[in-house]
Amino acid sequence: MKSTRQKIILNxxxxxxxxxxxxxxxxxxxxxxxxxxxxISRDIKDLxxxxxxxxxxxxxYVAPNSAIVSSHADKLIMIFRESVTSYQCAQNIVVIxxxxxxxxxxxxxxxxxxxxxxxxxxxxYDTAFLAMADSESARRFCEVIQEYIKx
Length: 151
Prior knowledge:
Arc Repressor Mutant, subunit A; four-stranded antiparallel sheet; 2 domains; about 55% helix; about 150 residues; Gyrase A, domain 2; 6 helices; two-stranded antiparallel ribbon; alpha+beta
């Protein structure tokens, strides 16, 4: 019962912004699971749930790994989106120009994307070089860059 309840808790907090233990108890009850505040408190401790600031400006429970990874990845993507000034394909190399000093951050964001055709990245001050497996992979990755920049 405990592991099932905890899986349901993780599912609930991944879908909803739960600010309080009371809201969590209500959400569990709506899912057909009766629980007490003391039990929820222990589950929160066992699951190592933390509170993070939500986009609405309130706090919500999140699983620690997802909060850290998601937050870090989201920040890198935002930096990538805001820092890229231009990009161009040169055979199997993609050259990305960034705002001054942000090429390393752009490369870090690209490395987090786990692009299978990416052989490696090299960052200077405002220029990043991406070695792709082949010319077609470089062309396709330029399309990916365009999608990220449009968002």
